Write the structure tokens for this entry.
Amino acid sequence: MKLLLQNAHIEGIRFYDAYRKNGGYQSVEKAFKMSTDAIVEEVKKSGLRGRGGAGFPTGMKWSFLAKPEGVPRHLVCNADESEPGTFKDRYLMEFLPHLLIEGLIVSSYALGSNATYIYIRGEYAWITDILEHAIAEAKQNGWLGKNILGSGFDCEIYVHRGAGAYICGEETALIESLEGKRGNPRLKPPFPAIQGVWMRPTVVNNVETLAAIVPIINMGGEEYAKIGVGRSTGTKLLSVCGNVNKPGVYEIDMTISVEEFIYSDKYCGGIPNGKRLKACIPGGSSVPIVPANLLFKTAKGETRMMNYESLSDGGFATGTMMGSGGFIVLDEDQCVVRHTMTLARFYNHESCGQCSPCREGTGWMYKILKNIENGQGKLSDIDLLWDIQRRIEGNTICPLGDAAAWPVAAAIRHFRDEFEWHVLNPEESQRRNYGIAHYADPLPMVGVV
Amino acid sequence: MSEVQNFKVTIDNITVEVAPGTTILNAARAIGGEVAPPAMCYYSKLKDSGGKCRTCLVEVSKGSEKDPRPMPKLVASCRTTVMDGMEVKNITSEKVLDARKGIVEMLLINHPLDCPVCDQAGECDLQNLSYEHGSEKTRYEFKRRTFEKEDIGPYIQLHMTRCIMCFRCVYTADQLTDKREHGILERGDHAQISTLLGKSLDHDFIGNVIDVCPVGALTDKTFRFKNRVWFAKPVDAHRDCPTCKGKVRLWMRGEEVFRVTARKDQWGEVEDFICNDCRFHKKETKDWVIEGPSVVDRRSVIAQGHYQGKVGMVKEQPRLIDQVIGKAPKLLMDIHSISDVNRPDVDLSQIEGPAHSDDFEHNK
């Protein structure tokens, strides 16, 4: 089922005329007849969960927004999509910019934000132009500016380009960066809903979350909640990359199984070259990696479905997380050690340097993994890695520390034998990873289906 | 206005009443002794400081009277305010001690450990912290990151290699000066404190960044390599200063004033900031009115001189093991017993004039 990408194939949908002709901006017309509380109520009823990674209920987040008299409130759209493996927001903004603008207008009205910001990552330079063009078009046609649709509500949307830092996707760091400061996360509390941008109450939402407001208003919260299973309502965009036949952005309604998602022709279309599946990271680089045997069946033996609850079934010991929807598939030729090292390098590079466990620990983990990967590791290094990640996780200001620790923890938890093989067979592991010779995998493929 | 109801908090099974809005760290400091978590970045005199070093993490085993759920993660006690009926575990929690040990190890992996040539040695917060919570060996086997030494002004030298990124000096410089001149470049483990394009820090009170620095990253150029702090005798003194209160601590050897610092309280925090004139220019005894020997915390290395009885050294607090259920914290390594130089049977106050290493020789 498609709600967001329904019209993505229509030619010229990027521009206002085609978008409007295909039912665009109807939700704004509908929403401006409703009271602001009624919109928040609809969103609550829809059960929409934040699509940025944490999966916090959006309606609840909105209702936490403080509303002191005489203080402006702000809505900030988090378009700083920097998680390796995640590119769903890029697709949405590139092809359906007006959907985001529409969602932003409705949400701004519901939250009372007269100045709304889109914080977009610096690398998406061309999308900034697309969005600015779309905003100009919307303004020309009276959907933005002063007194929208005669409702007396003023709204302006500003696009703010970041300078390319992963940490600025964390909401308080994003706020700091938006204020023009160094993008260091703030300590919580106070939460942004009380003191956010310029110490004013602020809501920070992901692009996909805000776009999903449009179908929620159009079809009503209760109807929207019927799509999906349990607390995973609505549709979710997944960006698939790695060893699959058809990588790309897919919209699913969270009722299909993981196996179907990977192997059906409607979605990823299976693994190329007849290779076997080794592991998968279902929610962007920071969520734990799962081996194939735990990917299709949970530890309890149930079929694992593509939704928040099922993917996190079994906790981090046997499960993973939905995360931001960056679906990375690894086939049997991929080296988990090398893969983990790449991620550790990323988190080391992107750590803001504010709090000590993350600043020092990420670099340490990267150096150890590099040693193991280069054939200079020791068996004790694996235990040391485990110890470092354990001491980073949960002890940092923001979730970047956790995000750096989880992939390492999961890789060791599920693929410890591969780490040991790397340490014990340094030359062979080098040959394998640098493609000098193809070796049949020397390990018993426990995780491979 | 109605009377403000004080909050009752229990830290390591000791209950204390504090005003609402107090942080856990300050509540623990009100109890005092070992219950107070160590703080490397928090500084009560600096607005917004704290929360960064993560050494003050504590476990909240009961959120409040109304909401008794424990907090899921360890929290930074310096920035978490107390709630009524909150129960906090500091040294009674295995989890906290383990996390702290990890953090000390991480703080030390890029630290050069050049204490033998560092001017801060003896009064270094990181040194004290690692004696108390660290392990004897590091598991880090890689090259440590290093930086060039940098002169930021005529009196201050920045040795970034030793820095633990507590941001205290940044807040000090920010809150003292009108223009922001001092900040952080880069990010992650290559982040560095610096001034704008190597400009020097220039303000009447800028010398205080030396005092707030918990390690030897910012040092007094008029004192560098002049003396070890434990050979100097700290003396409280004052003078009529037109810019500051003029209440300082002199570090003397015989008649000679080696350096001037602000007075620090038992938590290692400056009581009153002093001006550059007092700190860097008044280095003669005749400039000062001596009040008497300073009160030094026994736990610090400087206190090894055995001034007991004669001067106001802080009496050692009775240990809390009796009151604390659970594991006793690791004892502070007794510097007196392990050092060859600082022999416990040598009483510094008995020695005529400045102490010399000959006075500590074994076979004297």
User: Anything to note?
Assistant: The CA atoms of residues 101 and 135 of chain A lie 7 Å apart. Residues 400-424 of chain A form the longest helix (25 residues). Residues 436-440 of chain A have pLDDT under 50 and may be disordered. Residues 336-433 of chain A form a domain with the de novo design (two linked rop proteins) fold (CATH 1.20.1440.230).
